[in-house]
Amino acid sequence: MMFIRSFVFFLGVLAAFALGWIGIVGVPDMMLARIEAPPELKRYTAEQLYGRSIYVREGCLYCHSQQVRPEGFGADQARFWGRPSVPADYLYDKPHLLGTMRTGPDLFNIGARQTSEEWHLLHLYNPRLVTKGSIMPPHPWLFEEKPTAGPGEEALVLPDSLAPARKVVVPTAEAKALVAYLLSLNHTYPVSQGAASDDTAKTRR
Amino acid sequence: MSRPPAERQVSRTIAADQRLSDELTRIGIDDSAASPTVLFLASGVAWLLIGSLMGLIASVKLDLPDWLGGAGPITFGRLRPVHLNAVTYGWISLAGSGMIVWLMGRLCRTHIRWTALLFLSAILWNIGLFLGSALVILGYSGGMEWLEFPLPAAAVIALAFILFALSMFRTFAARQVEHVYVSLWYILASLTWFPLLYVIANAGLYQGVGEAAMNWWYGHNAITVWFTPIGLAGAYYFIPKVIGRPIYSYYLGLLGFWSFALFYNWNGLHHLVGGPLPTWAISVSIVASLMMFVPVLAVAVNHHMTALGHLSMIRYSPTLRFVVFGAMSYTATSFQGSLEATRSVQEVAHFTHYTVGHAHLGMYAFVTMVLFGAVYYIMPRIAKWEWPYPNLIKVHFWLSAAGIAIYFLSLTLGGWLQGLAMNTPSIPFIDTVNLTKPYLWGRAVGGTLMTIGHCVFAYHFLLVIHRAGPKRFAPVWFRKAEEVAAP
Predict the structure, then answer these.
(1) Other beta carbons within 10 Å of B267
(2) Partner-chain contact B63 A135, CB within 8 Å
(3) Which of residues 26-65 of A touch B (CB under 8 A)?
(4) Over the stretch B238-273, which tens digit does the pLDDT of each residue have?
(5) What is the Cα–Cα distance from A12 to A18, expressed in whole angstroms?
(6) Is residue A205 scored above 90 in pLDDT?
(7) CATH homologous superfamily for B221-487?
(8) Of B34, B237, B311, B318, which one has the fewest beta carbons inside 10 Å?
C-alpha cells in the first residue's frame, strides 16, 4: 500500500513535469522546425560569429534585447526599431540572444540604425563619448594603446581628456569583430507575418 | 473515572519515559545529519557572501559605469551572471540542501543514509560553482540567462545534485513513519524534478526561438521545481513547529501541492510575452500563471490559519520572524507574478527593472528569508551551541528586511516609470535611462544593507560553528522565556 502510494506520487510528479516540458517547449519547437529561412537572412560570417561570441562573453544580453514587438504592444514600431521579429529571423542563432532587458535599446536592427563603424568603436571604447548620460560599461580591453597606429590600423579620434599621453588607441580584432556582428544585425528584409507568430496585437485588444 | 494515584503516577512516568526516548531519538537523528548539514549550510553562507558582493559591485556599476571599468573580468556583463549563479546555485541551493538533509532525518524519523554521498556532493557542488564562476569571469559564459555555466561546470553540479538526491531517496525509503508530511512532498518532488530539468536544459537540444522557449521554461522551472519547494518545505515545517500546532488543513496542503505541480510547470513563456513565439504558447503560460492563484491561496490560507492567534510569537522567535516574513512574501510575490504575466502588465513591465525587483522579492524576501529562519533553528540543534548574541539576529533581520524593502520599492517604481517612458515614443530612449538613475541608487543602498546583514549573519554563524561567544543554556528568544505565552 505504502509502495503503491509512493509510486502514484512519483508518477504524478513526473507527469506534471513532462507535460509542461512538452507543452511549452516541445510542441512550439516542433512547429517551428518546419519554418524556412527568409532568402535575405544571411548566415553569419566567421568574423561576425567571432563578434557574436564576444557579445556573449561581455554579457551584452543583460541590457540589450534582440526582439521587436508588434504594433499595439509597446512603442517599438513608433520608435522605428523595425518590423516585428518572427521565428525565422533566428534560425541561425545559438545561443539565442533574445534578451529580457532594455537597460539599453533593442539591437535587432542596430546594423541598419547606426551604420558607422567609427561610431560603434568609440561607443564600445567609452559609451559616454557618443551618448551623454549612458550607463553602459566601457570596454577598453577591446582596444590597444600604442605609440603609433600600425599599417592598416586606424586610431580612434578621442577628445584630449580621454586620449592617453603620447599614445593612440586602436581597436583589436575583437572590437572589430564585435562591430562586424553589430552591423550584421539588420533584419529589415520583408517576411510574411503569418504562421508561427500571429500578430500579438490582434489577439490582445 | 479518576484512577488511583499510584496508577496515575505510573502512567506519568511512562509518558515521561516516552518523551525522553523521543528526545533521544531526535538527538540521534539530528546527530546523524549534523556533519553534512553543517557542510552544506556553511558552503551556502560562503556563496551568499560571494554572491552579495558580486551583486553589489554590479549594482554600483550601473550608477558609476566607469568605476572598475578597465578590465573584462570585472565588467558588469560578467559579474551580473556570477551574482545570479552564486546566490541561486550557491547560497539557496546549498543552504536549501543543508535544510533538506536535516528535515529529511526529522520527517522520516530515521538517521541519514549514505552520508558519504552527501560529503562528496557538497564538495563537487562547490567545485562546480567555483569552476563555473571562474569560467564566466574569464569569458566562457554559455550565454543563456540562468544557464551561463559552461558544460564542464554544469556537469559537475548535475552529478553533485544526483548524489545528493540518491542519499535523500535512500533515507526516505528507510523512513520510520507512516505519514509523509507536506514538506516532504515538496522535497521529494524537487529531488525528482531538478536533476531532470538541469540535465535537459544543459543538453543543448534546441536552436533559435526553440532555444529561447527552452531557456525560459528552464529559467522559470528552476524556481518551480527547486527554489520555491525549498522555501515552501521550510515554511510548512517551521511555522507549525515553532508555534506548536499542527498544520491547519492537510487537504489544503494536498490541493496546494498538486495544483502547484500542475500549473507551475507551464509558466515559463510569460518571460517572452510580445516576443517572436507562437502566441498560443505564450497564452498558455499566461493562463497557467493566473492559475497559480489556486496553489498560492491554498498555501497562504493554510499557513495563516495555522499561525492565527499566535502571530505575536514573531516578536519572540527569531526563526518564526524570518519564516513568517518569507511566507508572506511568497504570497505577495506570487500574486504579483500572476498579474505581471498578463499582457497589459507585461507591455509596461517587460524589459525593465520592474522584473528584477520581482525576481528579488521571490528569491530573497521569500526563499532566502525562510532559509535564514531555518538556519537559526537548525544550527543550535546540530552544533549543540546556542546563538551567542540575540541582538545580532535582530540586526540581521532588520538589515535584510529594510534592504529588500528599499531594493524592491526602488526597482518596482523605477522600473514601472521606465516602462511607461519606453512606451511613449516622444521620449528619447536615453531619457528612459536617465529617469531610472535615482532608483538604481536606491537599489545599491538596499543591496548594501542586505550585504551588511549577510556579513553579520556569517559572523554569527561562524561563532556557532566554533562554539564561541557566551554560552547560553536555552534557545534564543527575543524576550525572556516566561513572557512568552505558552502555546
Answers:
(1) 29
(2) yes
(3) 27-29, 31-33, 56-63, 65
(4) 999 999 999 999 999 999 999 999 999 999 999 999
(5) 10
(6) no
(7) Cytochrome c oxidase-like, subunit I domain (1.20.210.10)
(8) B311
Q: What is the pLDDT of residues B282-315, one digit of tens each?
A: 999 999 999 999 999 999 999 999 999 888 888 8
Please write the tens of the pLDDT for every residue from B13-24.
Answer: 778 888 888 889
Residue B197: C-alpha distances to residues A96, A103, B192, B214, B216 (Å): 19, 30, 9, 10, 12
Reported ipTM: 0.92
User: How close B52 comes to chain A (CA, Å)?
Assistant: 18
**Residue bearing cell 517604481:** B413
Q: Report the alpha-carbon distance of residue A190 to residue A41 in Å, rounded.
A: 10
Nearest to B334 by CA among B182, B258, B228, B222: B228
- Side chain identity at residue B90, one-letter code: G
CB of A86 within 8 Å of a chain B CB? The answer is: yes
In chain B, where the domains are located: 23-179, 221-487
What residues contact residue B8 under an 8 Å CB cut-off, 6+ apart?
Answer: none
CA distance A12 to chain B (A): 9
| C-alpha–C-alpha distance, residues B128 and B22, integer Å | 39
Which value, to the nearest 10 degrees, does the dihedral of the CA atoms of residues B41, B42, B44, B46 take?
Answer: 170
Q: Which helix (H) or strand (E) holds B253?
A: helix B250-264
Grid cell for residue B381: 540543534
